[in-house]
Amino acid sequence: MSHPFTWVPAAWQRHASRDPVPPPAAEFPRGVVVSTLCGQEVTSASGELAWLWGTCPDCDDVTREIVGVPSRAETAAEGRGRS
Asked: InterPro entries under this entry (predicted)?
């Protein structure tokens, strides 16, 4: 499933951006300045470790809204309600 954003490790978190990824890549190469869904301009990182950084909570909220799924807070509340 394709979405109108791309995840990018930068600034010690995984962010999401609507900026176009330079062809022919599927992800941003290291050192590219991108605008994020949380309103920052960050420089992309690369490597396996960078993809293990925590997800930016603000980018996560916006991406969930874009794809129409519940926020983390809503999901957590639903999980607590099942006990």
From this structure: Zf-HC3
Q: Is position 83 within any domain?
A: no
Residues spanned by the domain of 37: 6-78
Number of domains in the chain: 1
The answer to whether the pTM exceeds 0.90 is: no
Could you tell me which residues come within 8 angstroms of residue 41 by beta carbon, excluding any fewer than 6 positions away? 33, 34, 35
Pairing of strands 13-17, 6-10: antiparallel
* φ, ψ dihedrals at 50, nearest 5°: -60, -35
Residue 1 lies in a domain: no
